[in-house]
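Recap quiz, item 2
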Amino acid sequence: MSLLAARGITKHFGGVTALEDVSFEVMEGETLGLIGPNGSGKTTFFNVASGLMRPDAGRIFFDGVELTRLTPPRIARLGVARTFQISRPLAGLTVVENLLPGIYFGSERLSGPEARRRAMELLELVALDGKAHWSAHDLTMWETRLLELARALGVGSRLVLLDEIFAGLAPADIPETLDLVRRVRREMSTTMVVVEHVMAAVMALCDRIVVIASGRLVTEGAPQEVVRHPRVLEVYLGSKEVPDAQG
Amino acid sequence: MRRRITLVAALALVVAACGLAEEATTTTTTTTTTAAGDTTTTAGETTTTAPPEQLVIGATLPLTGAFADTGVFVRDGYEAIVEVVNSEGGVLGRQIELVIEDDASDPGQAATLLEKLITVDKVDLVLGGYPGSSAAAQMAVAEQHGMVYVSMGGHMASFGQGFNYSFGAPPLMGQWWYKGFFEFLSSLPADERPTKAAMITVNNPVGASVREGTVEDLAAAGIELVMDELYDLPLASAEPLVSQAQASGADLFIANSFFPDGVLTIRAVYTLGYQPKAILEGIGTLIPSWKEELGAEGDYIFSGTAMHPDLPFAEVDLLRQLSEERYGTSAPPIYFMYGATWVGTLLQAVEGAGGADQDAIVAWLRSNEACSFGGCLTFDDKGLPEAYSYLTQVQGGVPALVGPADVAQAEPIYPIPWGE
Amino acid sequence: MTQLVQAVTTGLLVGLSYAVLGVGFSLTWGATGVINASHTMVAVIGAYLGYFALAWFGVDPIIALVVILPLFFVFGWGFFEGLVRPLKKRTRVVGLSSVVLTLGVALVLESLTKLAATANPRLLQTAYTSRSFPIGPARVGGGPAMAAVISLVVIAALVGFRQRTYLGRAMRALEQEPEGAALTGIDVRLTSGVATGIGFATAGAAGVALSMIYVFSPTSYLPWLVFTFLVVILGGVGTVLGVSLAGLFAGLAVSLASLVIPFVWANLVLFVLLILVLLVRPTGLLRR
Amino acid sequence: MRPRGRSERTIWLMLAAAGVGLLAVPFTGMSIYLMSVAFVVMFHAAAAVSWNILGGYAGYESFGHSAFIGVGAYTTALLLSHQGLSPLLTAPVGALLAAAVAVAVGYPCLRLRGPYFALVTLVVSLAVSVVVVNLPGLNVASGVFVSRPAASPVMSRFILYEAMAVILIVAVAVARAVERSRFGVALAAIREDEEVAATQGVPTTRFKLVAFVVSAALTGLAGGIFSWSRGFLDPGDMFSVNLSVLIVLFALFGGRRSWVGPLLGALVVTLAREFLFIVIGEDAAQILFGVLLVVVILFMPNGLIAAAPRLLRNGARR
């Protein structure tokens, strides 16, 4: 059964097309990879799905509810969480405090000691519990990625949108991170949409892949099929004429 | 306003006759600043001989901040008179010490500091603050502590608060401001008087009080008020207001303004070629820089005052002398004169009451005529003298005293000779 | 009809004075991120210098600009190097800290001006300030007319500078992409210093212009600052043309409003307009 | 933000004791003048602590808080002079009206961030003053006389002191409760990154407005009692831009993370100003004050609390 359904999502920035009539579905429990060249509209899709941007046309449904009419906090309360491509820790707060808003105001809405317990559990899950009382400012880049992941899980585990959490990681860190994401998926039984450039991670994690280029859907299917698709090879190799629509 | 020889008047004559004034300038003026405050102690040579008998007068004035320009003249007036009185042996044989605190032009600070002077410094007497907002705030404090408060007061409403200890001597009374002008109008043949008036007023307590009196005076004079606008400070541009006045066809233009807005307004009158028969202006023309900033355009503007350097009273001669010494001009600044008058009135009442007992001073002021530099005043139960105002008109850059006739030093020029 | 023409004329003249104050403020804000609350205090000092040039040396304030402009340019650059750069080293986003920092500077300058020139209000008196000219049925004073000329020259010079010169274009790049600009080889430090210098110089010119219209005193900077804020928010940061139009718009709005509603409410029209504009376009009227 | 246990209760008890102490000080025979100085300090502290709920916790620095002081002040002053109602009764009405103004202007203003918000609140405070001063039929522009709280001078100052002390205690209690609440965490998240906060489920628009309204109401409450001390209200003073800026400075100087900073900032700056003013006069004090602003921004951007020894900081944030 589909948990998330995008129908004809279109978004332009001035004259530049970020998304043009993009439709696909995410099934309950699966991990979907969303790939495409830089500027193909992946992050824009996340921004639309999390309510930070309104599409010019089209709608996104989550479990039957139309997300494209809701504000970001309402969407979060449904259990849709995301990370950011460029990590955005709440730098002035401690690591554990970074998790609290999502736990308090996300889909679970815990409070008091229960919320703190939950925050510590999630930090443990991403192995940051030792730095719970550090300032988020002092974390390494990898650690902030983990923090973002834990923070997203705190909001709710029904659907997590992961925006390039592998980008820029040292190759040595990748297997460990992969294990971690798998563990999260298993323990939280969460549905995921993964925007990723590190193809090894995509192939290892995803059940299905959606490819977009220049804001248009190219193809979708199982990982092994998709990477052999001629159009996919073309857009990845001939990506020079792809306009930059990152906005 | 009857005049007679009084304490100050006598002093004036003595000083003038013996040339003591010259000596006064060489008399040591000690200024001590103590940790407790910006305390200026002004005293003659006998200060230290009998300190226990000193009479201490406390006051706060705006020595810094928005009203500092005029505030320092009031202080000078206080100090100058105290100096003269001390050099003449003080009041009731007691030397006078002035303690003046700077309230930085803040009415709240003025009230707090006055209360400090009364309760911490335990001054024997207090004197008024300036401007009206500060005086209004202080009147309540003085009343509560049972201290006589001789000052400009805080406009008409402040004298309607049922205060027993406050006296306006003379008050700076907005409601009376143009009385002299309307008296002058009534002396004119009916067909020469203006028929329509346009009025603009600064939207604060000072403007409101002037406007209130003017509305009544206009109605009494049968002049139609065809435009009546308020404006907030700072005034960005006076052209819209003046242009509206011009369009209304008013032949009397009244600008109840302060200095900067008054200057802007008059300049707009010239720019737009508005030519009413007469222009009344609030308090701008009394500021010496009126001439500096406006030049010939500042001429012919009427205003009012309760005090004027050209008043033909013998007492004023003393002020002229003191002004010559202090400022090198025989025309004492008007706020210097006010300060001198307030302190003169208070000291006269102290002498009359035979001491610094506040209730005795009140009793004396209520039952006697207090004569100081502005003439003689009797006070009603609100602490106000009878309504009066002198008429001034800027002539050759200087606000000349042009009315009423018994004190006038120059003829009013009416209507304004536009284009000459 | 006469009144309407007069209102439009006056509105435009007053608007130009807001505009000339606003453009430099907006330019510095855009290029350096500094919201210079002392901008109008600098203008007040410019007004004083012009005033005393005339009063003491008989030099017309417009001639005095020959000295004021380079002098203030140097002050501005020094201000950037001495105060803004240390601040920028501390915090990446200087917006609000810069308001407080420059308010401090304004307070110091205000007090020093008071000590040097007293708090007495001043108005410039030249041969042309007491003349007036007819414009159709309306009349314009010589002072406001001259102020308008100065304002227009300053605005035109700024527009030209930003379009035609390398540094001007660098400033625009800094406004749009503060971080990207550094990568493209723009000397951020030099460009920011020059932008602040130009901001100060235009403030000096604006002060001279305003001294021909308004009575000014050391405390005038506060009301001037309010109107500067207003037009810059209306027009948008870093847009010379936007701010100029916003200034004219503000002047006209107040002037025309006072024709139909009590004068005392006219400024409120402006405040309400500002809030309405912000509701629709949170980054200013003409900002893309 | 550790689990609420005995230590938390102890801290509240300590604060309550401090509050009682504050209320009790005048009974030790405090002089009228000291009471009036303490009154101003407490007024500044209450305003700064209230300002900080929006400006410090949520990071929306208002430069127009004198609007709320003015609304509170004129509400109580007019009700006192026209209806004879004591500000002790009507100060809450002033707080409500200040809150209403905050609701009305909050929605458009809170869409703006950082300096834009700061500047637009400044403009709004001027707009509010124009409206209040020109309210038809109330003649506010002529000034409002405010009769003193009691017949005796000592009693007057005593009542003012106690009333402002209560308001300061309320402001601190509210501020501290906010800090420790989920709401406070949400405001901190908004301050750090509003978009992230929104995607975490924080109803940012609503919470910002609530913070603005609470801040405005408390400020209005303080303004309502403040006007009672003035005797005469001149429309120019209550809505002054200087007051708005001063409030920001208190918080900035002290530090904005907790209520302690603005309180300390108000205390130190007010007393220092008073002292400098007495010792070197207003003009020189003004120059030093300006230099102080520059120094604070350049050398102690996180305020006195952060600059002070670590021990003090731990004490404040515990």
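Chain A is about 35% helix and 25% strand.
Confidence is low (pLDDT under 50) at residues 239-247 of chain A.
End of item.
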